[in-house]
């Protein structure tokens, strides 16, 4: 077994290390962000002083949005399979613009696709429009999180329209945002996937070639060539989620006309006062409020309720915060009163991780 090499989590650092593991000349590596706290999480998850598991090319650290970060083992074959299947779905290889951090799987796979396609990735080191203008021709692709798409629809709409496809991942894409992109003539394709699946493996509800999706009592199961090999030095956790070739995700879904629809996480259903409450359903109702710009609903430990339902709400610019009673009344118009949040927190913006996901841990720390 070889040792794990730590490399700078910069586009140049990751690209060079990726080129080595893809052509067989390099050694397994883990990209390290410059932020000290993020770097410490990588060290804890990657454990560079220990030998690397056989077949590993890259160790990526999960974002830890709702739990302990883990080191995810990705093989050379999984990386290439993901890139190849993505190009096949999008219409062929092309040039990629990188607007994401390369030490997360979404950014890393943009660089992998570039290497597989034999094209030079374009870095976002100025405005999105200026970066798009540096694309050299042929098919043009990029990938980003929903927050970036919403921002660029306001500031760089023409540049967005110049791409053959824009993969949207890292978090659920709200329906209003999908409609805004479609109305603007932007080809935005919502993707479902995670670090353990080598980035997005289901595009627009349809699995990529080589990927299969199934459900086990509503839990999403994934099987295919892009799957990770396991968790770094965590064989017990690996055995828990990888069974007979299937990865048991923490997400719930349903199949509608053969397409996967993600409806929330397994832990999105909490028991509050003896009542089962689906947090994502409450969250979706809040997002229907005409003054709500963004919202997330979480469960927090509570001595009286067991788990209390807590809403974090961002209102439209210039608007007054929504009071607890107003929020509860709005939710109760279409959902059981027992589902209405017991606590409402108004925020200027939801805290986000570098991966583009809501920092749930930070939100819950503020209410405990």
* Number of DSSP strand runs: 22
Q: N-to-C terminal Cα separation, in Å? A: 44 Å
Overall geometry comes to globular
Write down the Rg.
Answer: 21 Å
Question: Which structural class should the secondary elements be placed in?
Answer: alpha/beta
Q: Mind telling me the CATH class of the largest domain?
A: Alpha Beta
| Strand line-up of the largest beta sheet | 6-5-7-8-9-10-11
How would you name the oligomeric state of the polypeptide chains in this document? single chain
Instruction: Give me the CATH fold name of the largest domain.
Output: Rossmann fold
Distinct helical segment count: 12
Assigned CATH architecture of the largest domain:
3-Layer(aba) Sandwich
Whole-number count of domains = 2
Short structural description:
This protein has twelve helices and 22 strands. The protein has 368 residues and is an alpha/beta fold. The protein has two domains: 5-263, Rossmann fold (3-Layer(aba) Sandwich), CATH 3.40.50.12780; 273-365, ANL, C-terminal domain (GMP Synthetase, Chain A, domain 3), CATH 3.30.300.30.
Annotate the secondary structure layout.
Elements: E1 5-8, H1 11-23, E2 29-32, H2 36-46, E3 56-61, E4 71-75, H3 76-90, E5 95-98, H4 105-117, E6 122-123, H5 128-133, E7 140-144, H6 146-155, H7 157-161, E8 165-168, H8 175-183, E9 188-194, E10 199-203, E11 206-207, E12 211-216, E13 219-224, E14 230-231, H9 235-241, E15 242-243, E16 246-256, E17 259-265, E18 269-272, E19 275-278, H10 279-287, E20 292-302, E21 306-315, H11 324-332, E22 343-346, H12 360-365
Parallel strand pairs: 1-2, 5-6, 5-7, 7-8, 8-9, 21-22
Antiparallel strand pairs: 3-4, 4-14, 9-10, 10-11, 12-13, 13-16, 15-16, 16-17, 18-19, 20-21
Helix pairs in contact: 1-4, 3-4
């Amino acid at each position: 077994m070889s040792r794990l090499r730590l490399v700078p989590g910069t586009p140049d650092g990751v690209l060079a290390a990726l080129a080595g593991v893809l052509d067989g000349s390099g050694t397994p590596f883990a990209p390290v962000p410059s932020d000290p706290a993020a770097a410490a999480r990588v060290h804890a998850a990657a454990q560079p002083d220990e030998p690397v598991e056989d077949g590993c090319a890259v160790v990526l650290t999960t974002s830890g949005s709702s739990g302990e970060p883990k080191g995810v083992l990705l093989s050379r074959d999984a990386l290439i399979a993901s890139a190849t299947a993505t190009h096949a779905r999008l219409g062929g290889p092309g040039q990629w613009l990188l607007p994401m951090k390369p030490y997360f799987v979404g950014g890393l796979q943009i660089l992998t696709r570039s290497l597989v396609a034999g094209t030079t990735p374009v870095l976002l080191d100025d405005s999105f429009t200026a970066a798009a203008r540096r694309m050299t021709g042929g098919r043009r692709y990029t990938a980003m999180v929903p927050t970036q798409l919403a921002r660029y629809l306001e500031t760089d709409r023409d540049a967005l329209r110049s791409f053959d496809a824009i993969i949207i991942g890292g978090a659920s894409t709200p329906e209003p945002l999908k409609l805004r992109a479609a109305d603007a003539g932007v080809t935005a394709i919502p993707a479902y996937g995670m670090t353990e699946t080598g980035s997005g493996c289901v595009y627009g509800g349809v699995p990529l070639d080589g990927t299969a999706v199934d459900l086990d009592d509503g839990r999403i199961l994934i099987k295919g060539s892009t799957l990770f090999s396991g968790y770094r030095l965590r064989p017990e956790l690996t055995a828990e989620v990888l069974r007979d070739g299937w990865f048991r995700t923490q997400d719930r879904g349903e199949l509608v006309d053969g397409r996967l629809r993600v409806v929330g996480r397994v832990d999105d259903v909490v028991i509050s006062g003896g009542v089962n409450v689906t947090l994502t359903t409450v969250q979706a109702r809040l997002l229907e409020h005409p003054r709500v710009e963004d919202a997330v609903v979480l469960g927090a430990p509570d001595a009286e309720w067991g788990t209390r339902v807590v809403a974090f709400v961002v209102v439209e610019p210039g608007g007054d915060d929504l009071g607890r009673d107003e929020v509860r009344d709005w939710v109760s118009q279409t959902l059981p009163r027992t589902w209405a949040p017991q606590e409402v927190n108004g925020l200027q913006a939801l805290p986000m991780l570098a991966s583009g996901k809501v920092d749930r841990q930070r939100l819950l720390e503020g209410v405990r």
